[in-house]
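name: query_chain
kind: protein
chains: 1
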Amino acid sequence: MATGSISSLGIGSGLDSNNIVTRLMALERQPLTALNQKESSFSAKISALGTIKSRLSDLQTAATTLGDPNKLAAFKATVGDGDIISASAGTFAKNGSYAIEVVQLAKAQKSFSSIQTAGTSYGAGTLSFSINGSTQDVVLASGGNSLQDVANAINDAGIDVQATVVTGDAGSRLVLTAKNTGTDNAFSLSVSGGDANLTGLATFDGAHPNASAALDSIITVEGETVTSQSNTVTSAIANVTINATAVGTSTLDVARDTSGIETAVKAFVDAYNSLRSDITAKTAYNSETRVGEPLNGDATIRTLLGRMRDTLSNVPAGAAGSDYQYLYTLGVSFTQDGTLTFDSTKLNNAVTTDFDGVVSVLNAYGTAVNDMAKAFTQADGLIDSRVSGIETSISTIDSQRERMERQFDLTEARLRAQFTALDTLVASLNTTSTFLSQQLESLSNL
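structure:
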């Protein structure tokens, strides 16, 4: 009465044992599903915190601009003829109008060697350039140099003269050009230790039509002559830079530029509102679905919201006592949803009335917001610390998952072993039942 072996789960018993084991394991795995959902929630929090930190960094950048008087107290330089000059004004310039004449543009010295025939070779030697009282040497260590080799050696030496080779029908020339304009950068060349060909390069062709002597720029400002080594003049008008581009006359007007303040304040308001909107979206709770966004109820974000509002609602020390110590006097006000509105007309009226006072107040608020944001955005700040805590929780989940997976494998193996034993038992009983039925049937036939 052999029972045979069970090769497929459920054959012996007639039960759908595979399906039963699968369903039992699904019940066993429910804690793992919950754990995976928890990990997904943690990952969503990290992503949301990253977005908030990025928006907060944008606010910090805008606040840095408000906190820098050099970026707010700007002046604008306007020229009458942009073909003659261009100009820029620094932070500490003064209002003024000026008549400008460019008498002479600065030039760099350009010198040409005599014509060199093809195949000319230049021996070893030293080319010494005398520039503004100092000597800059270029050494050719070996002979057999081409004219291009000489030019390359000059350029590789890193001196204040650059060299090129120009070849025409009559032959080639070595062209030497000072790297900087002005008479202080004029140069002369002498050769020592070289052969006749190398020595000949020190004799320039003064009649060449493109040769030019070093020149300083000469401009007049309100009739006063100003000489400069370059075409950029910074000494004529305090905190104003004039760039001469052509000979001729032009006017130059320097006036305070208030547009920078409006731009900076608007950028600040936009950055604040972008941050506030993202916080609202990522902390929302849907009462119908009873599902909250990743940062709903997050303590770090609640702290951030409180500090954001406090920083703009409380008067910073640098603004105390000013007629514009409150931001609403400068056109920046809170709305019911926590965002800011901006009235540029109100700001511009304040700027017209007391420019320096407005700049001082904006500097104070910008510095305060920057300091507030820094506590959250800096390395190991409040946001990084929150993220680190969440990452620790995820690591714990990973360990839990590994332990559970090992336990699930053991449980599934145990269940399959039990159902296999059941199959074997039922198969044995079925065989015995069949045998007994056959015996009884034989007895009844006697």
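note: The two ends are 24 Å apart (CA to CA).
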